[in-house]
Amino acid sequence: MVLGDGAMGTRLYERGIYINRNFDALNLSEPHLVKAVHREYVQAGAQFIETNTFGANPHKLGKFGLADRCEEINIAGAKIARRCASEGANVLVAGSMGPLGNALASVGTLSPKDATRAFTRHAVGLRDGGVDLFILETFLDLNSLIIAIEAVRSISDLPIIASMTINADLTTSFGHSPERIARTLNKQPVQVIGLNCSTGPHDMLENLILMRPHTDKPLAAFPNAGEARVVEGRVLYMSTPEYFAEFTKRMIQNGVRVIGGCCGTNPDHITAMAAAVRALGPVSETAEQSELDDSQITVTSEVEEDEGQAVPPRGERSNLARLLDENAFPICCELHPPRSSLKGLILRQVRLLKAAGIDAVNIPDGPRASARMAPLALAHIVQVETEMDVILHYTCRDRNILGIQSDLLGAQALGIDNLLAITGDPPKLGDYPMATAVYDVDSIGLLKIANNLNHSLDLAGKPLSKGTAMFLGAGFNPAAIDLKLELDRLNRKIDNGAEFVMTQPMFDPDKLMEALDGAARLGNEIPVFVGILPLASYRNAEFFHNEVPGMEIPKPIRERMRIASERSKEDAMDEGVAIAREMLRLAAERVQGAYIMPPFGKVELAVDTAAILPGRPTIEVVKRDLADSGDEDKERG
């Protein structure tokens, strides 16, 4: 990933330069204003900045009587940007070139020869000013863009980003579709193709998704900050930096490799986007050195992946990992933190599970966006007072990247060895819809942070005197509507450090097998814990199916629960356990462990579900053994 800067024109407009003036000429008349904008973007984290030369071609400059100063203005623009770029860490300078402002002869009055001459003069000035690459942007007509590309190539072999602008109706003003743009530019001698201006992040992403199958070149995205609005005579853009950061993640996840902002974006947008880029990039990626070659943009780092502490082998990092290495088929049980500070009940439940041979307990982090005891505190209490292995669920919802790193270091210091990285339910799904969600990163970014810490590095690549040694897990939904997207995200989770996977609760063995067949790395490289949920009633089944994101319970299963629930509550729970046992028995042939989620904290259902496997006792046997041993647990509130 490479991050560009934001708007130049609207920043100058905010400084009092109105639209009746020529912005490119400011390179000569008021260079201090241009420098100020460049410096803001360098400080915000941009890895390349664009020269203030978008309209510095003879045709547009001619309207202000400046056509004969074309080369001079472009050279000055490039040198200003170069001086500002040198204040950052290897920031590149991109020579900005826009359309000529006059259509070609087929629909306008400009001949191809005149267009070539104008683009060549524009490019020569930028080349002589010392740019590192060219960005040809906001073109409406493919024919005009191709002429511009040919003009640049006639005087330079520097890399080129070629960018069109598409309206909300999915075409340019000349009727070019995203698919046609991608197919045409894929044949041109440019390094990156993409879109900028006209639309906000949402619509631009939709267009880029349409382009992706038609090119093997990296994609670039430079959206506006939403639609422009005129407020009391001033042009304003309403999209927030937080909104841009969220779409930066989505852009990256959909194959965009060069990203920045266009009209209305400012340094705050770029700062937020930089955080998203850092969180989602590979472990070795920083902004130390950017390099464009004939096929892609790559970013290398002063910190190599093999630096930092050696991470212990998987089986030495936790008891759970050791059991997986021994092919022991470990079983975990989920226990929700209490809605109070009382711990006695959950400790009694853990002791019962331990007596039943359950290998670990999972402690979710604010499930359904509810307020409960801090899972990190509870995980520590459980391990200290019961010596049961714990898998700590950790979400990105409530902490920024500083808090995340602090929590994970603290968790390791408290002896928490297993971490399940999840994005987390948004507050609007829970009891506090007015609460603010953070989401600096999603689960992929969280895994990157945790994996960095395992290698004694923080997110910025700075070395730590001692890192962590956590066994890192990720969630996976085999019943996802878009299984291809889910598998793509799974691979990215694995690439960023996931070492085991826990699925959503499964009720359809065919969907589980299909997903496992499509994920070659699961089972062979990455062990899988299948999610098993013993239903308690028909109402329980309907709730999970209709109101819990990611849950799908087939109609025949719901019908079985309906019939059983009509008989009695006990019959309903027995039927729920029977269904869960059927799923576990079938899944055990393909997965490496199980993850049982008993409803309403009824751990007895988890024990009875696990009893379908060899050597696992029923709840009656467990309770009898506890009674015979005289082991009575008292609540310690």
CATH homologous superfamily label of the largest domain? Homocysteine-binding-like domain
- Radius of gyration from the alpha-carbon trace, in angstroms: 29 Å
Count of extended strands? 20
| Integer count of domains | 2
Largest sheet: 8 strands, parallel
Structural class: alpha/beta
In what range is the share of β-strand residues? 5-15%
Report the uncertain regions. 230-235, 282-308, 632-637
Examine the secondary-structure arrangement and name the CATH architecture of the largest domain: Alpha-Beta Barrel
Mean pLDDT: 86
Morphology call: elongated
Cα distance spanning the termini: 50 Å
**What is the CATH class designation of the largest domain?**
Alpha Beta
Number of helices: 23
Helical coverage, percent range: 40-55%
Q: What name does CATH use for the topology of the largest domain?
A: TIM Barrel
- Write out the strand line-up for the largest beta sheet, numbering strands in chain order: 1-10-7-6-5-4-3-2
Give short descriptive properties of this protein.
2 domains, TIM Barrel, 8-stranded parallel beta sheet, disordered C terminus, 637 residues, 8-stranded parallel β-barrel, alpha/beta
